[in-house]
Design brief:
heterodimer, A: mainly alpha, about 0% strand
Amino acid sequence: MSVANRPVHRPLSPHLQIYRPQLTSVLSILHRATGIALAVGALYLALWVMCAMSPRAYSTFQSFNTSLLGRFVLGGWLFSGFYHLCNGIRHLFWDAGYGFELKDAYRSGWIVVGVSLVATAVSWIVGLRLI
Amino acid sequence: MTDRRTPLARARGLGSAKEGVHHWWMQRLTAIALIPLVVWFAVSLVMLSGADYQVVRAWIGSPLVMVMLILVIGVGLHHGQLGMQVVWEDYTEGAFRVAMIVLTKFLAVLFGLGAIVAILRIGFGG
């Protein structure tokens, strides 16, 4: 067996379960989770537009959207959208080389949490014409 | 079995197909494009909430909305399938991984085209 083919047992770095959750890691996981939710949501959005071709299909579609489960799912997507948008901008700043200091990463993290929660709440309140 | 390739050749064989940067760049490019698109869409949804079928249909069929909606769905699905590809690559292996990546890409194109045809049909009548 050549050196190149010999199985190597390199040490594995400790994984998720060994670390105490911290803002940065939780937000990172949430970015991926909301991304997956939004990928499904994008298919649902495409379906919505396709249903808009016929009144019957559209009313069936809307009856789900206005149900309790539908409201819950749409509300989740709304938050996912705002969160992934804000945190995505945070990622773009990192890609450009800014905001890597621990203090900055935490501050931008809390800003993302705040803005996405407020944007979700405002959309919900204005959307349902509560004010 | 003896591997007669040099370590360099082996590394090359297993390594980049020179497409990693393209994936990374497209993900960033679509992300930047989605910032104004998603903000526009979120504001539109809030404005449209509670609207009946005729209002929604007329909204979809107006020229500016047609362009923006096709962009939101097209760019969104593209960005989504790029991201989902990475998710499958991170957590699954072998034939299942390949199958899921193929399925993801097929679904994105299918739903994207379906939505575009629907938007054009609503806008141009018929």
